Amino acid sequence: MARPFSEQLRRQADPIWRSIYAHPFLTELHAGTLPMDRFAYFILQDYLYLLDFAQVLCLGGARSPDLKTLEIFTRHALIAVEVERSFHAAFGKWLGFSRKQLDTAPKAPITEAYTRHLQAVARGGSLGEIVAAVLPCYWIYGEVGKRLHKKRYKGPKIYREWIETYASEEYWKPVREQIRLMNHLGTSARAEEKKLMLSHFLLSSRYEFLFWDQAYRLEQWPV
Question: What DSSP assignment string belongs to 90-129?
């Protein structure tokens, strides 16, 4: 019996995901030793990323073949806009950012590249390609949350709250919905589309690694 398509994608991306789990941003965040300026940088860039992410989900909804799929995408886009952005705004306030600072900050290099990748897939790809491009963001954050939550933690409260958010069942419900949708779309996709879906999944996974990495290095545009 063939493995679910999501598992096939996940196995191909395993070296990338293992590198994410071992990244010093996450190991230091769990240890409570991550410098707060790096976490603040990450929260700011993640806030900016979410607007594009919500737009991509709306474009996925526009390609939905039925009301059930459309409902998933519209609900997830609303979560990204209302729940996730309010969550990041609350963190931003704790870190000293005003709403204006959050909304007017420039995208860092990887944030710009990653969101352009997602927008390009959403505007030119199939529904299967869109799901393959957005799924790493859903799935990786959930896996990171679960892995860090299993280990004993004694660091700053703000880091613990971040971990608990992504480890929660509330967060994992939409993750599982996207995984199931990926499996459904993968069963009917032709070979060429599957190749594109794998390519998007791997590239988004690489951008996820780079997103953590740019925050750890406080990356700025060189010119």
Answer: HHHHHHT--HHHHHHPPPPHHHHHHHHHHHHHHHHS-HHH
